[in-house]
Amino acid sequence: MSSNKQEKKFEFALSKHNYMLMAVGFAIIILGFVLMIGGRSEDPNVFSEEIYGFQRITLAPMVVLLGFIFEIYAIMKKPKQ
Q: Where are the transmembrane segments (predicted)?
């Protein structure tokens, strides 16, 4: 057995910085889903137009999409040598 194989250090595929960026991306995705919450009516027999607001129909899906794009960036970013 060669000593080179025994001295090989275990390393993760991504750096600590990548994992921190992934946590930020995950938080952005969670924020997008939180923005989708709400808009229900107090009375189930009455329709509420609040469900079609800008926040739930436009803003929240864009924030979720931004979070997924940020996640891809976080995974693909090369660590500094």
A: 20-37, 57-76
